[in-house]
Design goal:
85% of the residues lie in helices and 0% in strands. It is mostly helical. It is a multi-pass membrane protein.
């Protein structure tokens, strides 16, 4: 990789870290504050919310805050739809940026464990992406960029992203509605969705993720 490319990546990473710090330490937006800003727009609120969700990965604004704000602003039904559309749009944007950034990176020779993981991710694009979307410990935007860098097929990535987003969209939408209205049925529904998601993640990790790790370890030997 050329010196110019290295400088480009250093500048990019510095900007990412700076924006993340500003979001966490300076701006400190809450779901309620985001909801208030959205509802000021009146009839344009859904359109602007989706646009904000699409651009959110560029400033590393927390996806959970945007999702919860969607539930607070639009209720349990429309909230799910807008969260899903906005989240998928943002994920596609981050995926595209990952591809652009990774074009030169993968023109260089990559060997060893990184190359094996890249091939595994490309070969099992849908399954691997879905698992990463469902795992709550993985950053949503990081998964998007990694999939773009690894050249996971767009169709597999999109399908896995929509399916992986759906439980969270439902959960956050109901939770936001419950916090706004004080209706316990929404809060209980949200907790039930997240509990079910946790069970699914545990099952997937045991059946899929651990097998993938064993396969990679076998390839390295």
């Amino acid at each position: 990789m050329s010196t110019k490319s290295i400088i480009k990546y250093v500048v990019f990473l510095t900007a990412v870290v700076t924006i993340a710090w500003l979001n966490a330490e300076v701006f400190r937006f809450s779901p309620q504050a985001v909801r208030d800003e959205i509802l000021i727009l009146g009839a344009w609120a859904p359109v602007m919310y989706i646009a904000a969700c699409m651009l959110r990965p560029l400033i590393l604004f927390p996806a959970s805050i945007m999702s919860l704000a969607g539930g607070l602003a639009f209720g349990p039904a429309a909230g799910v739809i807008y969260i899903l559309i906005g989240g998928t749009s943002g994920a596609l944007l981050a995926y595209g940026l990952g591809r652009l950034l990774g074009k030169e990176l993968f023109q260089t020779k990559i060997k060893g464990r990184m190359e094996i993981w890249r091939r595994k991710l490309e070969a099992e694009g849908f399954r691997a992406t879905l698992l990463m979307r469902l795992l709550p410990v993985l950053n949503f935007d990081l998964v998007s960029y990694v999939c773009g860098l690894s050249r996971v097929r767009l169709s597999s990535y999109t399908a896995a992203t929509v399916i992986g987003l759906l439980p969270g969209a439902i959960g956050y939408s109901f939770l936001g509605s419950g916090l706004l209205t004080g209706e316990w049925r929404y809060i209980v529904s949200a907790v039930s969705v997240f509990a079910a998601l946790l069970i699914v993640v545990v099952i997937l990790r045991k059946k899929g993720y651990e097998n993938n790790i064993n396969n990679v370890n076998g390839d390295l030997q």
